[in-house]
Specification:
This protein is α/β, with parallel strands linked by helices. Helix content is 54%, strand content 10%. It contains 20 helices and ten strands. The chain has helices spanning 20-28, 41-47, 56-61, 65-82, 102-114, 126-134, 169-179, 231-234, 238-249, 255-259, 266-282, 285-309, 314-327, 330-333, 341-358, 378-391, 399-418, 423-443, 448-472, 482-498, and strands at residues 4-9, 31-34, 53-54, 88-93, 118-121, 142-146, 160-164, 188-193, 202-207, 221-225. Strand 2, helix 2 (41-47) and strand 3 (53-54) form a beta-alpha-beta unit. Helix 4 (65-82) packs parallel to helix 5 and helix 11 packs antiparallel against helix 12. The longest helix has 25 residues, at 285-309. It is elongated and about 110 Å long.
Length: 499
């Protein structure tokens, strides 16, 4: 058997708030350990002649907070196991033991495993003082976040938000950067130092951008972000987007949006995708931002239709995507490795095959060409089909063989035209030529879609050059002849080379 280990809270910093029961526990303990001696109540313990040993040295000797909490936990359990049965060891922490005390969470898990009896006595937490001193009611909606691990995805403007563990200017800076992903730089936040501690308390209201310019951060510092349910505050949240799409599709929403179906929006999804691609080609970030929003709207609408039927929601879509990304990246989230992009792709393909097996599909029973979407643009589909075939060895040996095949297909198309074959047969020969030409893309490491897109863009630029030059002469393409237009075409080419 071992000693009993009791964890007590020292409160938010005002010695007058210590309970009589906790003082009795501290006085009667065979040993008292405190997480830190840097707490206003420690002076009162000294006056009460309660000796203690702090773990402050661990903060200096260890490189991270998790290591500190692991060391505190291990030390306390070892002390309890070594102590005589019937004695009691007290571990005292700032505030309340169950609020932002990682070592206490570890003790709750490991004491039973070590055969150590663990008791926890409450104490006033910094939350109690924050509710009073900052003047808000948590029933309106409240969240508590840790500055050392804060993420923008945790932020909800419609909730009162307290951020604890703001130890220094660095964590204040990290907190500021995170908040500014959702809140404007001028948004007023409140910094509290030593709330409720007489002579030490400070409550400062500052615009968000000045958060890390203040002095005085320490163990008793926090940041309060007041609740904001204004429309502008919610514009950057995914939940608001989901709500807007839901409203648009509701009986009180937009008549046009209500009438749409998966089929009616099919062309919109395709068009918006191509508009995004255009912004990528133009290297236009502002336009890209807008077009990505339009594409996201199409996804939201399709997901909303299924949500109305009860099949799935957009959050199910996100869940499935998260699971897929984690599963298919074992070199990031698992125990595999990938030293380059090729090895990463091999992992992806391997996990993709494993997914099929788990769904009862045997990848080896599938066609080597499976997985190519039916409705891809023909050029892109040809490229993907050829890539899949090449993986199983059905491929040309070199570029010379591919170019010879292209010449062969040109000859066959010419023969089909010259011998007067049917339009259908001539079209099939043209398809063979295009398919053969697509093959060369893989051998020169080029995307055929991108290659043709660039040529299209080049054609438009040169043709518009012809139109403009003719317009400068008081003429037009309708009034010109092929010889004149060819001359201007060559001029356009020459200008391109000179740039």
């Amino acid at each position: 058997m071992s000693a009993t280990l009791t964890v007590v809270g020292l409160g938010s910093g005002n010695p007058d708030r210590l309970t009589l029961g906790i003082i009795k526990k501290l006085k009667a303990a065979s040993a008292v350990y405190v997480r830190t001696a840097e707490h206003p109540v420690m002076a009162a313990l000294a006056e009460l002649e309660i000796p203690s040993e702090s773990f402050d040295g661990l903060y200096e000797s260890l490189s991270s907070f998790p290591e500190v909490y692991e060391a505190i936990t291990a030390t306390l359990i070892a002390k309890a196991v070594e102590a005589p049965q019937g004695t009691e060891i007290v571990y005292a922490v700032p505030g309340h033991p169950m609020v932002a005390e990682s070592a206490v969470s570890l003790l709750r898990k490991r004491c039973p495993e070590a055969g150590v009896e663990l008791n926890i006595l409450g104490g006033e937490s910094f939350l109690d003082e924050a509710f009073v001193r900052l003047g808000f009611d948590p029933i309106e909606g409240f969240q508590l976040l840790d500055a050392s691990g804060i993420r923008s995805s945790q932020l909800h403007p419609e909730l009162h938000t307290l951020i604890g563990q703001v130890y220094d200017s660095f964590t204040a800076s990290e907190t500021k950067l995170c908040l500014m992903e959702l809140y404007p730089p001028e948004y007023e936040v409140i910094v509290g130092h030593a709330l409720g501690v007489e002579g030490e308390e400070q409550i400062l209201r500052v615009p968000l951008y000045e958060l890390d310019r203040l002095d005085g951060y320490g163990n008793l510092s926090l940041v309060y972000v007041p609740i904001n349910r204004a429309e502008d505050a919610l514009k950057r949240t995914f939940a608001r987007l989901h709500e807007i799409v839901d409203i648009l599709r509701s009986p009180e929403g937009c008549p046009w949006d209500r009438e749409q179906t998966h089929e009616s929006l099919r062309k919109n999804l395709i068009e918006e995708t191509y508009e995004v691609l255009e912004t990528i080609d133009e290297d236009d970030p502002d336009h890209m931002k807008e077009e990505l929003g339009d594409l996201l709207l199409q996804i939201m609408l399709h997901a909303q239709m299924e949500e109305e039927l009860g099949t799935f929601s957009v959050y199910d879509v996100i869940e499935g995507l998260n699971e897929k990304l984690i599963f298919r990246h074992p070199h990031v989230f698992g125990d595999r490795s990938a030293g380059n992009a090729e090895e990463a792709l091999q992992n992806w393909d391997g996990m993709k095959a494993e997914e099929k097996r788990r769904k009862g599909v045997k990848p080896e029973a599938l066609s080597a060409l499976s997985g190519v979407p039916r409705d891809l643009p023909a050029l892109m589909k040809a490229y993907k089909l050829q890539k899949k075939a090449s993986k199983v060895g059905f491929d040309w040996d070199n570029t010379g063989d591919v170019l010879a095949k292209i010449r062969e297909e040109v000859d066959e198309l010419q023969e089909a035209i010259e011998t007067g074959m049917s339009a259908e047969e001539q079209m099939l020969e043209l398809g063979d030529l295009l398919f053969a030409a697509t093959n060369i893309a893989r051998f020169i490491d080029a995307d055929p879609e991108e290659a043709l897109t660039r040529t299209n863009r080049k054609f438009v630029s040169r043709f518009q050059y012809i139109e403009q030059r003719l317009l400068d002469r008081g003429s037009s393409v309708q009034e010109s002849n092929l010889e004149e237009m060819e001359t201007l075409w060559q001029e356009a080419k020459a200008e391109e080379r000179g740039k």
